[in-house]
UniProtKB/TrEMBL annotation:
Keywords: Membrane, Transmembrane, Transmembrane helix. It comes from Nakamurella leprariae. Residues 142-152 have a biased composition (Pro residues). Residues 1-22, 133-152 are annotated as: Disordered. The keyword Translocase does not apply. The keyword Metal-binding does not apply. Coiled coil: none annotated. This is DUF4233 domain-containing protein. The chain crosses the membrane at residues 32-52, 64-85, 97-122. Residues 1-14 have a biased composition (Low complexity).
Length: 152
């Protein structure tokens, strides 16, 4: 039982409707970019044992540089919505390939992920081109169903 004039606990108070966030068509692409950065950071960290045990015998400074590169990649995930993030990702790719000085495997990882980033950026460019042209499937109007033939 409720007192006179009191609203029941399950009733919603009248007021302005909550603001609905407009759809962001590039949200999924930013998720792919963040996931790629995380996978690249994990791969870079997994290169530490290889760099230490083969070839040039990377010391503490080299391991620290590799860890800093991976931390920078993880940190860039938080900045993926910024307009300058593509430049930051390009710098990280150059640093990863420059890791060839420490270990050839680190440079090879950089080249492989450079190819992945080229593909992602191509998809982003193609998406934006199609969006501007209005040819994305989500931008097409549904066709009305055909009328059934007469006499059926």
């Amino acid at each position: 039982m409720t007192a006179a004039g009191a609203t029941p606990p399950d009733a919603t108070p009248a007021g302005p409707a909550p603001a609905v966030r407009p759809p962001d068509p590039e949200r999924g692409l930013r998720g792919i970019m963040s996931a790629t950065l995380l996978l690249q950071a994990i791969t870079v960290l997994l290169s530490i044992p290889v760099a230490v045990n083969t070839g040039r015998e990377v010391g503490g400074v080299g391991v620290t540089l590799i860890v800093l590169l991976a931390v920078a990649m993880i940190g860039t995930c938080a900045l993926i919505t910024r307009p300058w993030v593509i430049t930051a990702i390009a710098v990280l790719q150059v640093l990863n390939i420059a890791g060839w000085v420490l270990s050839a495997w680190l440079g090879i990882i950089g080249i492989v992920f450079l190819l992945v980033w080229v593909a992602i950026l191509w998809m982003r460019t193609e998406f934006r081109r199609r969006q501007a042209a209005g040819t994305l499937p989500s931008q097409q109007r549904p066709t009305p169903p055909a009328d059934p033939p007469a006499g059926t």
